[in-house]
C-alpha cells in the first residue's frame, strides 16, 4: 500500500542523509518514493543485486554486511529509524557490494537511484548538500570499521545462534568482535 507523499516527505526530511536538502527537492524525492515492509531476518538486498534504490528506514533495525568467502558476513553498519542505507549506490557501480538484512520487522521508503541522480544533476544546491552528507557518513564508516578492527585484534569471538525464519541455515554476522548468527 502506498502512503501519501506527505508521509514520505516527512520521513525523508528527517533522514540523516537528506538533512539540509531544500524542501522542493525533498518533495520531488517523496513523489517518487515507494513504501515497503520487510519482515524480520529477510533481506532488503544482497551482494550482487542491482543497486536500484536508496532506503530511508522509518521503523525497525537493518544490518549491513560484507559477505565473506566462508558464508559469514562482517557487519559494517547497523541502522535504526531515521537513517538511510544503500546510499553507496549513488557513488558506485550498478550492483550492491554488501547485503542488508532486517533484524526486526521494518518499514522504509525506497527512492530510486535514478531519481536522486537526476535531482543531483539538475539541482546544484541539493547535490552539494547530498555529497557533503555522504562524505560525512563515509568518513564515520571508515573510522568505525577501523576502530572495530583495532578492538577485535587478539580477542576470541563468541558465537550466538538464532535461526533465520523458515530456513535451517544460519548467517553469521561480526559485530564489534562477536559473531552473531541471524
Short characterization:
By secondary structure, this protein is of the alpha+beta class.
Topology:
Layout: H1 5-14, H2 23-30, E1 34-38, E2 43-45, E3 53-59, E4 62-67, E5 72-79, E6 84-85, E7 99-102, E8 106-112, H3 113-122, H4 124-152, E9 159-160, E10 172-175, E11 178-181
Helix pairs in contact: 1-2, 3-4
Please give a structural write-up.
By secondary structure, this protein is of the alpha+beta class. Helices cover 31% and strands 29% of the residues. The chain has helices spanning 5-14, 23-30, 113-122, 124-152, and strands at residues 34-38, 43-45, 53-59, 62-67, 72-79, 84-85, 99-102, 106-112, 159-160, 172-175, 178-181. It has a 7-stranded mixed sheet, covered by helices on one side. It has a 4-stranded antiparallel sheet with strand order 1-8-3-6. Helix 1 packs across helix 2 (23-30). 30% of the residues are buried. Mean pLDDT is 80; it is low at 156-182.
Amino acid at each position: 500500500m502506498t502512503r501519501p507523499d506527505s508521509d514520505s516527505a516527512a520521513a525523508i526530511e528527517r533522514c540523516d542523509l537528506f538533512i539540509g536538502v531544500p524542501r522542493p527537492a525533498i518533495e520531488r524525492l517523496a513523489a517518487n518514493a515507494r513504501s515497503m515492509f520487510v519482515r524480520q531476518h529477510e533481506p532488503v538486498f544482497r551482494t550482487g543485486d542491482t543497486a536500484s534504490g536508496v532506503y530511508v528506514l522509518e521503523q525497525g533495525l537493518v544490518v549491513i554486511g560484507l559477505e565473506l568467502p566462508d558464508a559469514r558476513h562482517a557487519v559494517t553498519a547497523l541502522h535504526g529509524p531515521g537513517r538511510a542505507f544503500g546510499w553507496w549506490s549513488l557513488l558506485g557501480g550498478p550492483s550492491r557490494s554488501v547485503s542488508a538484512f532486517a533484524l526486526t520487522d521494518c518499514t522504509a521508503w525506497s527512492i530510486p537511484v535514478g531519481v536522486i541522480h537526476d535531482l543531483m544533476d539538475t539541482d546544484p544546491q541539493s547535490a552539494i548538500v547530498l555529497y557533503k552528507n555522504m562524505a560525512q557518513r563515509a568518513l564515520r564508516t571508515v573510522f568505525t570499521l577501523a576502530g572495530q578492527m583495532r578492538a577485535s585484534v587478539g580477542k576470541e569471538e563468541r558465537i550466538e545462534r538464532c535461526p533465520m525464519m523458515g530456513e535451517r541455515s544460519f548467517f553469521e554476522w561480526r559485530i564489534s568482535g562477536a559473531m552473531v548468527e541471524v
